[in-house]
Specification:
The complex is a heterodimer. Chain A has helices spanning 5-9, 18-34, 37-48, 56-65, 75-96, 101-114, 124-141, 157-186, 201-213, 223-235, 246-261, 274-283, 289-296, 306-323, and strands spanning 188-189, 194-195, 243-245, 303-305. The model of chain A has no long low-confidence stretch (mean pLDDT 92). Chain A folds into two domains: 5-141, no CATH class; 187-323, no CATH class. Chain A is built from 14 helices and four strands. Helix content of chain A is 63%, strand content 3%. By secondary structure, chain B is an alpha/beta fold. Chain B has twelve helices and ten strands. In chain B, the strands form two sheets. In chain B, strands 1, 2, 3, 4, 5, 6, 7 and 8 form an eight-stranded mixed β-sheet that branches. In chain B, helix 5 packs across helix 8 (171-187) and helix 8 packs parallel to helix 9. Chain B is globular. Mean pLDDT of chain B is 88; it is low at 1-6. Classes of the chains: A mainly alpha, B alpha/beta.
């Protein structure tokens, strides 16, 4: 049992007995033991979107461990348990930087899902912090060379391959950082074939992450990549003060640009990717606002700073990359 | 198949009375719930705030929030009765909450329709005798509001008796009581890490402009200065739940208080700062960037 599990769970049941806490914890461990990246995204969608229903497989596991557990009117409890499940899933990543697709998907799903939440539950904040912390550690770890860069005698195929592997990791990291720096230096959108200075900041907020993402070789990105993205955005005059409604960002972007930028969003993470979803909608000239509000649970009139939009879009693109080919 | 209830011959019907601590799960498992501790000495006006709130909901939405139901309607009716004409009393009254009721909570479900799809949440507000907080002040392991309940609180409302604050002979003991309650709760580690604090001055209609009002302001600043760091946020409220003069309207300040009770933060994206890398130009860049943009970034992000 995670040492904080009782504290986390008692938000749902302030007077839970030790026995009940143990049952919930065992069920959580069982879910975590077999969770897939798709299920992690499903749980994040359930936490973030008010109209989503609890996944049946999730509820069933808890019921198996506690036959007396109620099955109705426990929506808040299941959301809290879903949050704990994702937290426990991403915990190794936060503690040691140990990666893996599932913890990374869990962390990114939590962060992208929380975007735009009107009323963030108080219990969610610490899980979001843990996700950001964990992803930054993994982002650094996967770009760090751990193995030897030279081969000792006598030569074995394994040692040669290991040295090649380490060299490749190091070269990829250097090449990726090099690409980022050239991109930051030129401040030019390869997708729109225009300089950022010729575009308004609300358009740069959505274009820059898509341009930068083109050079991302490994997901998740390192925190310095997010910092560089913010640096480029804030170089644009007026970007610091830009705070538009969601629909204004999307409508300023326009159909023509959206057609150039649109990327397929895998169905497993659609519910966590409001920006990708809306860009795709305007690229296909759909009326999108009322459907958006029903699906994502926040108004398109909600205002967001440009910095927040740009980081969210980069995270959505990373999440979509993890799920690419899952449809 | 016969209904489950007939096999035992009994059907459990909710009493509608205030919920005991062990029954809170019925609400907290169902809705996003804020557990609120109304803390203050006997007679400071804790129950009267709840009465005013319930009576306001009988008239319509409060603070833009719609009444979405309550599991403790009978409990509300019970405390409201002495304030109504049907009680036969010559003046509205509030019955003193008994110590034997233990830790009891009243429940209100509200629906916010102001942004996006309607969002429902609940508040569970303690209706506990002031003795419970005297106990919490004096002993490290309180028995009425127990440690798990303190640790579950999302909001602690410290109630200051406005009538006492307007009397030069009493005002310092009111202030000292609030300070020692907060100090004990802090020292006994009863305050959870993401808890908010609201300082509520009741009977505002009796606080005379001038000297008494200044004393209230001074008390609020003092408490904020000393205890703000132990809480996620602090707010101050002035309330006249059942005013005896025409100076302020009925339930003055109560709608704003309810809004505070159900308010949540808009989510700010969490973001991590780059780590230091030995002998790297990145360090200088990152340090300069985060220093230069600190104000703009902290406004937008939760920096981890």
């Amino acid at each position: 049992m995670h040492e904080l599990f009782p504290d986390w769970y008692r938000v749902a049941d302030p007077n839970a007995t030790r026995e009940v806490v143990a049952k919930r914890s065992d069920a959580t461990d069982e879910v975590v033991g077999s969770i897939t990246k798709k299920q992690a995204a499903e749980l994040a969608g359930y936490i973030a979107r008010p109209r989503q229903e609890a996944p049946a497989w999730f509820q069933k596991t808890y019921k198996t461990h506690d036959e007396l557990m109620l099955t109705r009117a426990i929506d808040a409890e299941l959301r809290i348990l879903a949050g704990i499940t994702l937290r426990v899933t991403l915990e190794p990543m936060r503690q040691t930087g140990a990666g893996g697709e599932v913890p990374v998907a869990a962390g990114l799903s939590l962060l992208t899902g929380a975007f735009g939440m009107k009323d963030e539950p108080t219990w969610l904040k610490e899980h979001l912090h843990a996700a950001a912390e964990g992803l930054s550690k993994v982002g650094r770890q996967v770009r760090h060379t751990h193995g030897p860069l030279s081969v000792a005698t006598p030569l074995t195929p394994e040692s040669v391959n290991e040295a090649f592997g380490s060299t490749k990791t190091a070269m990829d990291a250097i090449a990726e950082m090099n690409d980022y720096l050239w991109w930051a230096l030129t401040k030019h959108s390869r997708l729109l074939t225009q300089t950022y200075e010729s575009l308004p900041p609300e358009v740069v907020a959505l274009t820059a992450p898509a341009d930068l993402f083109h050079y991302v070789r490994t997901v998740p990105v390192a925190p310095e990549t997010e910092t560089l993205l913010l640096h480029v955005l804030l170089q644009m005059s007026g970007a610091r003060e830009t705070e538009f409604s969601f629909r204004n960002y999307v409508s300023s972007f326009g159909r023509e640009r959206a057609e150039k930028l649109v990327q397929p969003c895998p169905s497993a993470c659609t519910v966590l990717c409001p920006i990708m979803w809306s860009i795709s909608a305007i690229a296909s000239a759909k009326t999108w606002q009322s459907e958006f509000e029903k699906f994502f649970g926040f108004r398109t009139a909600t205002k967001f700073p440009a910095q927040s939009m740009t980081i969210q879009f980069l995270r959505e693109l990373c999440l979509a990359k993890i799920f690419a080919g899952s449809d | 198949m016969a209904p489950e209830s007939t096999t035992t011959g009994f059907v459990a019907i909710p009493s509608g009375e205030a919920l005991a601590a062990d029954a809170l799960r019925t609400v907290t498992a169902r809705d996003e719930t804020t557990v609120i501790l109304l803390a203050g000495p006997i007679g400071c006006g804790k129950t009267t705030i709840l009465i005013a709130l319930y009576e306001l909901f009988n008239e319509g939405p409060v603070g833009g929030l719609l009444f979405g139901g309550s599991a403790t309607l009978a409990g509300f009716e019970r405390i409201c009765h002495p304030g109504r004409v049907t009680s036969g009393l010559s003046a509205p009254d509030t019955v003193r909450t008994s110590r034997s009721s233990g830790a009891a909570f009243l429940h209100i479900r509200v629906t916010d329709t102001s942004g996006g799809p309607p969002r429902t949440s609940s508040v569970l507000v303690s209706d506990v005798t002031g003795e419970a907080f005297v106990e919490a002040r004096d002993v490290s392991e309180p028995t009425i509001i127990t440690r798990p309940l303190w640790r579950r609180a999302g909001l602690i409302c410290v109630v200051l008796d406005g009538e006492g604050m307007s009397l030069t002979t009493k005002r310092h003991s009111v202030r000292a009581g609030a300070r020692s309650l907060l100090r004990s709760a802090h020292e006994s580690n009863l305050i959870p890490h993401n808890c908010r604090l609201a300082l509520i001055t009741t009977k505002w209609d009796l606080v005379k402009p001038g000297d008494a009002e200044d004393f209230v302001t001074e008390t609020e600043s003092l408490l904020v200065k000393q205890y703000a760091s132990s809480f996620e946020s602090v707010s101050c409220h002035r309330i006249a739940a059942r005013p005896t003069s025409n100076r302020v309207p009925y339930a003055y300040g109560v709608p704003r208080l309810l809004t505070e009770w159900v308010s949540r933060d808009r989510s700010k994206p969490a973001i991590a700062m780059p780590d230091t890398v030995k002998d790297s130009g990145l360090n200088d860049f990152a340090r300069a960037f985060w220093q230069r943009e600190q104000n703009s970034l902290l406004r937008v992000f939760d920096v981890v």
